[in-house]
Amino acid sequence: LKYERLSNGVTEILQKDAASCMTVHEKFLALGTHYGKVYLLDVQGNITQKFDVSPVKINQISLDESGEHMGVCSEDGKVQVFGLYSAEEFHETFDCPIKIVAVHPHFVRSHFKQFVTGGKKLLLYERGWMNRWKPSVLHEGEGNIRNVKWRGHLIAWANNMGVKILDMISKQRITNVPRDDISLRPDMYPCSLCWKDNLTLIIGWGNSVKICSVKERHASEMRDLPNRYVEIVFQFDTEFYISGLAPICDQLVILSYVKEISEKTEVECCARPRLDIVQPLPESCEEISSDALTVRGFQENECRDYHLEYSEGESLFYIISPRDVVVAKERDQDDHIDWLLEKKKYEEALMAAEISQKTIKKHKILKGILYCHITFSIYFRSHLFHFPSRKCQKILGKNTELWEFEVYKFKEIGQLKSISRYLPRRDPVLKPLIYEMVLHEFLESDYEGFATLVKEWPGDLYNNTIIVQAVVDHLKKDPQNRTLLRTLAELYTYDQRYGRALEIYLTLRHKDVFQLIHKHNLFSSIRDKIVLLMDFDSEVWFVFFQIDRVVEELENRPELQHVYLHKLFKRDHHKGQRYHEKQISLYAEYDRPNLLPFLRDSTHCPLEKALEICQQRNFVEETVYLLSRMGNSRSALKMIMEELQDVDKAIEFAKEQDDGELWEDLILYSIDKPPFITGLLNNIGTHVDPILLIHRIKEGMEIPNLRDSLVKILQDYNLQILLREGCKKILVADSLSLLKKMHRTQMKGVLVDEENICESCLSPILPSDASKSFSVIVFHCRHMFHRECLPVSNTVSSVQFCNICSAKHRGPGSAVLEMKK
Fold first, then answer.
1. Nearest-CA neighbor of 253 among 244, 262, 261?
2. C-alpha–C-alpha distance, residues 449 and 421, integer Å
């Protein structure tokens, strides 16, 4: 076996308290202490739950097979049985210490709600009607009950006289195994019980071991005897007193309490406990292994202070003492290979790994240790370097010494580049010198490979200062090498010298500059480089940086602030809407040509503020646009006429607004200005009647190009007449086509069947007796009436209309079809 202490939470517990008992489940451990606490632990010893059960010692803990219910008893007579994940609970306090408790293995099931307790009596508690617990005495009169184990339908317990087994099916006691050495105090040298399986009980008491088998009695032998009996199949004595027992395959694990004579004082004292594995024989045993355990405080412990618990199916054994918990595990082939490796017997280790390759776990790959020391040399001699390089990662695993040994072998033959991609980068991490050697070899012969390694390897694997200096030395020979410059920037970043890295990235116009600025908050270093940054990758700029942060940083550089906000507005009209008011001033100051497009495209800038700024700076075109947008079209038109003196722009503005009063104002303003009249005559024909303008022209006024203007008016008029006639022809043709279509539709028959109803009386439109005559009126709108249900028309015309449709509106389709039979 191999051993290790259960640490973590257990260490903390046993520094202030002492362990009194423990039980093991496949999912967790339950530890009881002398101060009345019960701790639930995981298999690493971490505390997951704590229960304050009693102020005094916990004597025993019992778990059912599901691990969902726990029974606890203590020295002050308290017994608790409760669910770990449910509200189910039982409390009882007895007038004497309760030494043992055992819950039914299948306690989780409703019809197995049973447990036993032992003090002076062995009591069975069963939950009955209305969830009441009913106790019954199973045994009494032979001293205190010291131990109990429940397996399947059998309960085994030990008192001062011996061991008894009860069959719960027949409720009969089937055996009594007396103790051999009655001179030993049963409280100082308690009995150890262990069920190997459902029918095999192992008893250890004093220095005697008995293995009992429960068997069925033959029907011919029944008479008044129980239907089962017990046969002792193995019995032998041990050298020391037994503190615990556990099965391991067909062998036994025995925890022994040892006393020895001190060489100095020649007085008997407590020695280290022993854990033995023995092979039972009919009247003796064969010792397989024996280990003395150095548990904490063993000099002060008694036989009753030690306990042995085990986890079925996992070969895990827990040795419990007041100040220590030790876990014993069965050694396997991995441990054997470890031992061979420690002794540097590599060939034997390889052979053992190959023989047991299906069962070993830890050393699945360590069979290659011999491969590393012998086979690698074969490939080196054959100049096949990449094959052993690939194998290193798989074979060497996490053994740093072997890794470093093999790297130096590659260095000796100048093949560090072959192993570079396979070197471990974490768990394990080699010495920095190893990685520096590989980087130097790449730097001397392969800049691209060097850059790739720097990018892939974490910066903490090697001494960054040494590599930086090496790169700087190479750049003195080739200062324009972009690969080395880019790699140097990455090295500066690893070394937190972000300013130098930023300078290199900006020189190279490298896209990683944005990530560097954003990640390390380098805004103060780029205030005068923002335009340059936006020029070579403006899209990335907007992805990486918050708008508010950039605007704030550029507050003292309004011209740069304008460039940034302008690019932002071009990219997305709504993203920087909170700065649109600010942008009006920026456009007015630094970019007048883009102010009007900005005012047209922005839906978030305040018009009053924009109008105020434009009027202050006498921006006529922008003022005209803002006045028209605010609904003051007359003032806008007046400004065009007075400030710009541009009749074409005035006419274009009037066309856009399409307002008759605006045209009237334009005519009144232009009537005494011959050039303006010429412009109006050339453009007004399609919007306003030209006669209105011609009548207002004063006689004798000289108008430039009047003849040409009048000819154009007549041409425009003729064009309008032609358009109207063409449209009329199209409309007449369309109307005729639609009328024919409607006529064809209304000429179609209308289906009348039993599902149709009269819209007046709501009864079926067709009579149930088809032989009777009937009269039905069906309108083109598909409403149907019995003739007698339809009101008589008050009009002179005999044409009738659908009452339902006529109530809404009278239109085509409401004329009548008459159906008679």
1. 244
2. 10
**Distance (Å, rounded) from C-alpha 681 to C-alpha 640?**
18
Q: Return the HEC string of 517-561.
A: HHHHCCHHHCHHHHHHHHHHHHHHHHHHCCHHHHHHHCCCCHHHH
Distance CA 464, CA 271 (A): 56
Cis before residue 428, ω within 30 degrees of 0?
A: yes
Q: Which two tokens stand for residue 42?
A: 């995981």
Total residues belonging to the chain: 821
Sheet of 200-205: strands edge to edge? Answer: 192-197, 200-205, 208-216, 228-237
pTM, whole model, 2 decimals?
0.49
Query: Of all residues in the chain, what percent carry a pLDDT higher than 90?
Result: 29
Distance, CA of 403 to CA of 496 (rounded, Å): 30
Specify burial of residue 598 (Cβ count, 10 A radius: 0-12, 13-18, 19+): buried
Q: At what angle do helices 447-456 and 432-445 cross, to 10 degrees?
A: 150
Mean pLDDT over residues 325-354, rounded? 80
- At what angle are helices 674-683 and 706-747 packed, to 10 degrees? 20
pLDDT at 395: 62
Long-range contacts of range 51-56, CB-CB < 8 Å, 24 or more positions apart?
53/78, 53/80, 54/78
Tokens 């700029």 map to which residue?
A: 541
Q: For 294-323, what is the mean pLDDT?
A: 91
Q: What letter does residue 434 receive in the DSSP assignment?
A: H
pLDDT above 70: residue 388: no
Cβ-based neighbours of 443, under 8 Å, separated by 6 or more: 450, 470, 471, 474
Please, is 798 exposed, middle or buried when counting C-beta atoms within 10 Å of its C-beta (0-12, 13-18, 19+)? exposed
Summarised one tens digit per residue, pLDDT across range 125-171 is: 998 877 788 999 999 988 899 999 999 999 999 998 999 999 998 88
pLDDT in tens, 735-784: 999 999 988 887 888 888 888 999 889 888 888 887 888 889 988 888 89
pLDDT of residue 678: 67
- End-to-end alpha carbon distance in the chain: 110
Per DSSP, what are the bridge partners of residue 785? 777
Distance CA 819, CA 666 (A): 68
For residue 50, give both structure tokens. 């704590």
Give me the pLDDT at residue 273, please. 94
Q: How large is the greatest C-alpha to C-alpha distance in the chain, in angstroms?
A: 155
Helices 660-670 and 674-683 pack at an angle, to 10 degrees, of 150
Q: Are 103 and 84 in contact (CB under 8 A)?
A: no
> 């990758």: which residue's tokens?
537
The highest-confidence range among 43-47, 352-356, 719-723, by mean pLDDT, is 43-47
Q: What backbone torsions phi and psi does residue 419 show, to the nearest 5 degrees?
A: -95, -5
